[in-house]
Amino acid sequence: MLNEIYDVCETKMKSSIEHMQRDFKTLRTGKVTTSVLDNVKIDYYGTPTPLDQVGSIIAVDATTIVVNPWEKHLLSDIESAISAGNVGATPNNDGEQIKLFFPAMTVEQRQDSVKQMKGMGENAKVSIRNDRKNSNDQLKKLEKDKEITQDDSKTAQDTIQKTTDKYITKIDSILRDKEAEILKV
């Protein structure tokens, strides 16, 4: 019974970190990644479709992304979807492919990215603390229903606190590494 509570709590905490890392992919760092286009969708025969399903997306260097559609008649649709997506670069359509030239990040843009990243990290910490609270509430209910002793409840809460501390420390470490990556010129 207690092991089940521990397992559920730890699984939720892991997923909070995974969610934070997925959110990080939307951040702009020193070099551009194709993930900046992940949220851009085009109308493909009446269905909103991600760009990577209608063509190839390649980051050719630190500031350039090239989109090669598999069907050339989609070029104008892709161009307008990227423009509407506000990804930080204006699409250049040469009739064969679309090129996105991203300007080098300024110091202010890097600091804004760090600020966004820290907000994502704080959201993950809040989520982890909520997981701790939910697990502790379950333990207190078990204690109240006389299914576990007061000592067992206290020991279990200490175990959950140690797990919480471990994941908060892990988030802090990830944030330090990501901040260094973003601020590196």
List the helices and strands and how they pair.
Blueprint: H1 2-24, E1 41-44, E2 47-50, E3 55-59, E4 64-69, H2 75-85, E5 91-93, E6 98-101, H3 107-144, H4 150-183
Antiparallel strand pairs: 1-2, 3-4, 4-6, 5-6
Would you summarize the structure shown here?
The protein is an alpha+beta fold and 185 residues long. It contains four helices and six strands. It folds into two domains: 2-26 and 106-183, Topoisomerase I, Chain A, domain 4, CATH 1.10.132.20; 34-101, Gyrase A, domain 2 (2-Layer Sandwich), CATH 3.30.1360.40.
Q: Residue share in helices?
A: 55-70%
**Which stretches are low in confidence, meaning pLDDT under 50 for 5 or more residues running?**
none
> How many angstroms separate the termini?
51 Å
Number of strands: 6
User: Taking all residues together, what is the mean pLDDT?
Assistant: 90
Shape-level CATH architecture of the largest domain: Orthogonal Bundle
Tell the overall outline. Answer: elongated
- Strand portion, in percent? 5-15%
CATH homology superfamily of the largest domain: Ribosome-recycling factor
Query: Helices and strands: which structural class?
Result: alpha+beta
Top CATH class of the largest domain: Mainly Alpha
- Whole-number tally of structural domains: 2
Can you give a write-up of this model?
- It is a single chain.
- The chain is an alpha+beta fold and 185 residues long.
- It folds into 2 domains: 103 residues, Ribosome-recycling factor (Topoisomerase I, Chain A, domain 4, Orthogonal Bundle), CATH 1.10.132; 68 residues, Gyrase A, domain 2.
- Helices cover 57% and strands 14% of the residues.
- The protein has 4 helices and 6 strands, in the order αββββαββαα.
- The strands form 2 sheets. The chain has a 4-stranded antiparallel sheet, with helices on one face. A two-stranded antiparallel sheet has the order 1-2.
- α1 packs parallel to α4 and α3 runs antiparallel to α4.
